[in-house]
Amino acid sequence: MGEDLADTSSRSSCDDDDDPEAALNPTGDDEDDDNVASRFRMRRLPRGGQDPGPPLSPGDGTAMSVYVMMHRIRRLVMAAIDDPYTLDELRAPHIDHQVVRPLVNRLYNPRDAAIVYCLVANRVQFLRPRSHEAVHQGLHESRAILCELLATRILRRFHEDHPGRSGLLLLANILVSGFDPCDTAPESVRSRRPQWAIQERGGHERKLTALELAIISESKMLIKSPACQLVVDAVYKGVVVYTPLSFVDFLPDHYKYHPVSLYEPRRAAILNHRRLIVPQIRNVIELLHFALLLALYMLTVAHYGFGADMAGVRIYETVFNVFAAGWVLEQFAAIVEHGWEVHAQNLWSFLDVTFVVIYAAYGLVRAVELLLTDGAYYALPVLCTAAPVLLTRLAFALMPDNIVFIALHAMMRDFTRLTFIAVWCFAGFVVGLLFLARTSGDGSVNVGVTWATITKWLLWIWFGLDGTGIERAADFHLILGPTLIITFAFLGNTLFLTILVAILTNTFSKIIANEAAEIQFRRAVLTFQGVKSDAIFSYPPPFNIAALVFLLPLKFIVGPLVFHHINVAVIRVINAPLLLIIGLWERRRVWARRSKSSRLRSWRYFPGLSPHGDIQVVFASEPPPEVIDALEKMDALHDVVMAERELAVDSPKNIRGPVATVRRRRTSNSSSVRTFEV
């Protein structure tokens, strides 16, 4: 096994980089991955299969522990800038040459795969709101931006220094391998960790990935970088495979841990059940599940009065309820998989939660009706309210890269937050008018107006639909009634709506300005959420309910190996047709792509195919050495680089004040950008 992997790795550098399907490491079900795990460890990347031993000082080329590196980065970043700066200011030539590049050269270590994780972890910490440091929040945001900028530059350097398939495997280990933030931390630090009940994962507990932290901190600049997108695209298509890390699994099966590796379809099992968690395949499966849910919902609502059995439960309703229960279980497991903070970044997460709430209300009302009566007079109207949610969710699922839906997701979050604040504040008008209606100015009690009527009038005024509330204002009180109503009209209809439009316009303009980054960020979220570690996702609804009922108790009876074999066998039996189609399709795709690639190599630069073929021929290969020597005599590239550096140093002082004091030594009262010498 070790010789096969070494031989495959040596061949990988000679393969065509445009063909991602020819992979390094097969990942069959019965294959031992210990050699792969030893080649690319979570904390350091040894060369030539040699273990470099314990981490030493940063100057000797070995990897530092995650705990030490996180504190080292924090000290350097905090010493680098003491004033708030924007991203454009940090990327300006002067600061870039004096601060950013020296920090990149100081931190970059080709043998340390955890450096990007530590940088993004520091970004998360800088962005964490702290009430006692509110006055320094702008400075913390600037330091968070610097951490993201350094992570992007270092990841790009990894990409440039390690091309080909081995480089793709290295980048994948950097972004999707798990790291323990308390690695080699003192016992006093470990003892303060939250002591919640965690599932056994063979030493991979409490680990997080750099890509997950980038999603949580919304590091869109890092995610949209070519190196990160290369890994995201490879994970999305299933070229890069690994066992993801999650907090809690409903049906855990962690007997085998598969490290980050490249997938070879032709050397894997034909019924490879792990292909069910490939994001590209997973998205298609989830879309089919939702389409079936929508079809059953339509049949239930349209044929509710037909096909009733003796128990009073309709056939369509029974099938819909069984399948919907499995679908809700799948959504709940998806939220628990990576936490709500990551799941909320999904475009249709709020629609799924809304449907779950509606379905839970429908189930509760239906259960009460079955206990008390034999009909369904109140449950069906509750279920009908889910139609706008389901149809809208279908549009979101079919067009996940549409910028309009991406903007709608962000604006819905702002709209919900602002509406909650407005309803909370404007509830005082309802209470005040209700008290005025109960007790008029002459002491008599006005019983003709209720809180529901007052709320209806205020809503009509809020949306500008009707002025009944203004006309009836004197019924509350001759002076105070019109005063409250007119005040509400000014605040609600004019001020609040103006603020709402301004906020939503600002959000939409920001998203449109960074359209490419937003699309790539959502794609990364979709990819990260698509890789599942919970075995419950390998069972389609409603089989996941049966698996939870029967297999989960079985896990506590039999051993881990027996449970793993039973679980894999059941998954393959249930998904046998789908797994067979996936296996044949992937093998066919690899053969077709390689055949097409070989034909294109022969005809790609043939001048007769295009009137501009001569231009393609000129740039198809590097010029000969004599031409390069002649060009170097005409234009020496090192002179161009020196001119760029001199231009950066002698640039006009159009940057903020502290930049002019770059070379000032650090003192107790200084507030400036520091120069780092490498």
UniProtKB/TrEMBL annotation:
Residue span, YVC1 N-terminal linker helical domain: 69-256
The organism's place on the tree of life at top rank: Eukaryota
Keyword set includes Cytoplasm: no
UniProt keyword annotation of Transmembrane present: yes
Segments traversing the membrane: 287-306, 318-335, 347-365, 377-398, 418-437, 444-463, 483-504, 543-563, 569-586
UniProt-listed InterPro entries: LHD_YVC1 (IPR056337), TRP_calcium_channel (IPR052971), YVC1_C (IPR056336)
Keywords: Membrane, Transmembrane, Transmembrane helix
Annotated region described as Disordered, given as residue ranges: 1-60
Start and end residues of each Calcium channel YVC1-like C-terminal transmembrane domain: 290-587
Protein name per its UniProtKB record: Calcium channel YVC1
